[in-house]
Amino acid sequence: MYKNLAAALAAACFFLSPLSFANAGAAAKSGPVKAAFVYVSPIADAGWTHQHEAGRKEMMAALGDKAVQSTFVENVAEGADAERVIRDLAASGNDIIFTPSFGYMEPTMRVARDFPGVKFESITGYKRAANVSTANARYYEGRYLSGVLAGRMSRSGVAGFVAGFPIPEVMQGINAFALGMRSVNPKAVVKVIWLDVWFDPPKEREAAMALFNEGVDVVAFQVASTAIMAAAQERGKYAIGFHSDMRHVGPDAQLVAVTHQWGKYYADRVRAVAGGSWKSQDRWGGVREGMIRLEGFSASIPPAVREEVKARGKDMVAGRLQPFHAGRAPILDNQGKVRIAPGQLLTDGEILAMDWLVEGVQAPARK
Predict the structure, then answer these.
(1) For a Cys-Cys bond, which of 61, 208, 252, 349 suits 228, CB 3.0-4.6 Å?
(2) The whole model's pTM is what?
(3) CB under 8 Å to 65, separation ≥6 — which residues?
(4) Helix/strand/coil for 271
């Protein structure tokens, strides 16, 4: 993952470059496609890796064993270990390799140069090549909708957000969550804790407990385990599940889960390999495309509030609601600077380069 924000901003700009790549290996595949997946953490029963494994299983169910054979390697650290594993999978005869972690991007690019006949899918990466495609989801759309719900359900008007690193993807989520909350409670506050790690359950739990001690009664997060949901269940607070539905961990705590759906994308890309039509591309899908969903609504939510959130979701699908669109009033950052002028909408490029936090977000300064 990028810890250097300047590098992350350059990354976001490159992601949108108008690159055009030739079809890499246009011949149709005879026999089943061999697909491999590399996971950054253990699969577990929920979370980032769990959701990608669910996508792999959905792909297998959709295509069948005669069309695709798949394998995975879990708990692979970013860096040298990732390159070794990706290289081994490429050398083992896999036709397509999915690498769903931002920190796998550079190892994927290095291996791809040495294996031009293998297709690679860099999930959350931004660099492409003739045999490297990129994909991500508009997580911020689900964050906005969950923020509306949090704004209605929070008694204190103070929410928390535990995050790994301040890369643009995370900043988008925090901002959209805060904007959703403040759309129904203009005085709402979101307190942020940075962990500088994506997967560390004890550290995640500690951060959640610290926020609850500061008066937070709803917490959202962008880390890889269920520890924060478990902490909310223990303390009798609310939490917004992320990546996966986490009701089995927090049956009373989960207000809703913002889930990611990868199965269709994986199946489509394997079909493209099988048919000889695979080519390098970008894919950034959200609520409209079905890559982001709200699931697992709490029974404690009043029917009118649930319908309000669902109506906002329908507006989003129809294009009537976009989180980073200013109405009559400008959208300010938490330093009071106008970031989105009245009536203006951020472009995808501006969203992907986001390095600021909206009004109402309290976050410690970064060194």
Answers:
(1) 208
(2) 0.85
(3) 32
(4) helix
